[in-house]
Amino acid sequence: MIKKVRVSRRKVLKAGMAAAVLMGAPSLARAQEQKQRGGHLRLGMAGGSSTDSFDPTTYADSVPIAQGYQIMNGLIEIDEHNRAQPELFESWDVADQAKQWIFRIRKGVTFHNGKSLDADDILYSLNLHRGDASKSGAKSLLKPITEITKLADDQIRITLAGSDSDFLYSLGDYHLLVVPNNFTDWQNPVGTGAYAFDHYEPGVRLLTKRNMNYWKEGRGNVDSVETLVINDTQARMNALISGQVDAISRADTKTIGLIKNVPDLAVVNSPGGWHAILAMQTDKMPFTDSNVRRALRYAMDRQQMLETLFNGYGSLGNDHPIPRSDPFYNSELPQIAYDPDKAKFFLGKAGLSSLAVGLSASEAAFDGGVNAAVLYQAAAKKAGVAIDIHREPADSFWSNVWLKAPFCLSYWAGRAAATQMLAVAYESQASYNETHWNNSRFDSLLNTARAETDETKKRTAIWEMQAMLHDDGGALIPVFADWVDACHKRVKGLTPHGIANFDNLRLAEKAWFSA
Amino acid sequence: MGGETRGNTRLVVRRLLFRLVLGLGTLIAASLLIFLCTELLPGDVAAAILGREATPETVAALHRSLDLDRPLAVRYLAWLGGVARGDLGQSLVNHRAIAESLWPRFTHTLLLAGATSLVAMPFALLAGYAGALWPGGWFDRLNSGIAVFSLSVPEFFTGYLLILIFAVKLHILPALAAVREDMTLGQKIPFLILPAATLTIVIFAHLFRMTRIALLDLLDAPYCEMAVLKGLPRGRIILSHVLPNAVAPLAYVVTLNLAHLVLGVIVVETIFGYPGLGQWMVDAVGKRDIPAIQAAGLVFAAVFVILNMVADCCVLLGNPRLGRS
């Protein structure tokens, strides 16, 4: 049985328009008319280093990704509603229970060096992340691909080992940018992006100039973009307030009042998928008992953590990893609240009058990690749970503590698709299954969700998985953090995006200056 | 008399040459130490490059491609040979030539150090002279007050305070010291003012106090008492009797502070976003980019050795017991 779903660009655009109208967003046409061209955009960003490179296999932090997106294009773009949209892949057919994907490559796109885009460029760019010799961060993401075949100059077929109806989201990954076939000169990058490379000092600044032949309508509006690396939080805030940059990423929520006080500046926060985790290994004592896990859920004051550690910029976690910004978020689960009596009740059900557990904590897990552990310790004490905090050294936390300690702090930055997030950390055989969650019903639901192209059926499966983790799982997820950016009000187009700061780091190609 | 002068000159030249050879030897010893220390650095470059999601296979592949399996001595000699030819190697992380990316950062560091010294050194030395001239006077007490403030307040506080006043409130100077290679010196100056002012406040304390104490100490020497007795004014005594003898301690104080301006300004670079060598080295350490760490270490060692050599030479040439006829 072969099920074919054809998604054309027009259909997707129509759906997007409908969604925009439904959500009460300003009409797309009007917004595009008002886009001004010109100007010099200056971005102050955290997450850059003198060791950065344009080689997409090396991307691991915000600055190289944002710089890559200025010069190069991806295959699929994840939009601000978390939907997969065509980019250099213009349309696609899916067959064989989402194991076979045929993509048509956009025509009439040229690289900055004049070469026109074809299937060989795509093949080369994808294969940078595949094979034994590859050192790419996207290597495991593309592992399910068994074969990539060129069918024509504008058509390729990708074959997967297993069904994955969310494969488009894998292709939307920030590593998968397209360069010309056999391209290796990463010091002078060439792409099909909105801006062409001009001048670069790694870890300091990048200057790019507008690509006059850019193929996306309404994108690439400014004449030039200057990306400045400002890793110090306060320096970034000062640079925006004093007018040396037009927008900053990762604004400091502690001192955000300084920005709100200036009438010309705006704070843009995006509810996203980044979440903190306290991971219990469900096959280690005492976490084998579901009642103990439940007691520990109610012993945590999530509201207090949200306010103290994140200054309110975030939302409460409900012990499953799917954020509110995800279309498959289960909105009907009751919010777990701090309730010492309930915690004691579940301890009683486990046959215990009190409980003592050790918790491995470090600032390496996330900023404020040790404080999170201390807050939890204080709240849990009232529920009869004594938490002994093991402070672990930051430099060996991920290699020696994480995945090894029975109760341990951790985080996930979120994934574009719910199935990806559930697969990477909760599937029984996943290498990063930090809670040792092993549930055959869950695994089979995950397989269903991955193979299913019908949204309703898919939703049913994903909702049930969230409910299982919420009731019974080993992850305590107190908080989802917002991505917080700030900009001058003359900068338009900085839309909240659930995946990352700065409109999923594509701000440069989307922004324009108001008159 | 003439023969004695020639003998003295020969002695001075010989001592200078000896000092030069000693400096070179120190530098080679430092290079060996740097190389060995980076070998002992905990953590693994492959794991640092690949991050949290490194798998054993990708780590092993990276190890092979980074050539980390040759013996230590062979790699050291190859590295030293490269350095002698001006080739500092390639970054393990982004594969750029290290000399190329290090040089602009180093010139930025020298620029900031130079700008700071131009302001701080004359000011602090004069204040120290005035302090010795009128110890306990109002000017001396004012400078001592500034020095105590600057010693007790961390430099990031001073920096943020200056940014708050001059950039955020008054809008007259940039908060971000975003100098670029392609700017002219004139264009760079506005960006240098705040970081240089911060550093001036930092080094002023040390320089001023050391100068003042060195001069006051010498003023207690018997030959100065003699000068007082023969009726010379205090200012003259300091200028013609004390200063020549103070060259040695002052040269070392100045050297130490110059070295601090080149090697120890990472905090100021960070809060002003100044693209100097300190930030570059911290980035390299964060990513375990060993050739870059070694290159930065070597440059810092060279700066230190050269400054000390210059100080030694000044002492030799300025010593009134040598070379004066």
How would you describe this protein?
The complex is a heterodimer of chains A (515) and B (325). Chain A has 515 residues and is an alpha+beta fold. Mean pLDDT of chain A is 90; it is low at 1-31. In chain A, helix 8 (290-298) packs antiparallel against helix 10 and helix 14 runs antiparallel to helix 15 (455-472). The termini of chain A are far apart. Chain A is globular. In chain A, the strands form 5 sheets. In chain A, strands 2, 9, 10, 11, 12, 13, 14, 17, 18 and 19 form a 10-stranded mixed beta sheet that branches. Chain A has helices at 9-22, 28-33, 62-71, 119-127, 167-171, 233-241, 257-260, 290-298, 302-310, 340-349, 369-381, 397-401, 418-426, 440-451, 455-472, 501-505, 507-510, and strands at 5-7, 40-45, 76-78, 84-86, 89-95, 100-105, 145-152, 155-160, 195-201, 205-210, 224-229, 247-248, 265-280, 314-316, 355-361, 385-391, 407-412, 475-476, 479-488, 491-492, 512-513. Chain A is built from 17 helices and 21 strands. With 325 residues, chain B is mainly alpha-helical. Helix content of chain B is 78%, strand content 0%. In chain B, helix 1 packs antiparallel against helix 13 and helix 8 packs across helix 10 (234-263). Chain B is globular and about 85 Å long. Chain B starts with a helix and ends in a 7-residue tail after the last helix. The relative contact order of chain B is 0.14. The model of chain B has no long low-confidence stretch (mean pLDDT 85). Chain A binds chain B through residues 44, 49-53, 55, 58, 60, 132-135, 137, 139-140, 186-187, 199, 201-205, 228-232, 234-235, 238-239, 241-245, 395, 398-399, 431, and chain B through 42-43, 47, 49-53, 55, 57-58, 61-62, 65, 91, 93-96, 101, 104-105, 160, 163, 167-168, 171, 174-176, 178, 180-182, 270-273, 275, 279-280, 283-284, 286-287, 289, 292.
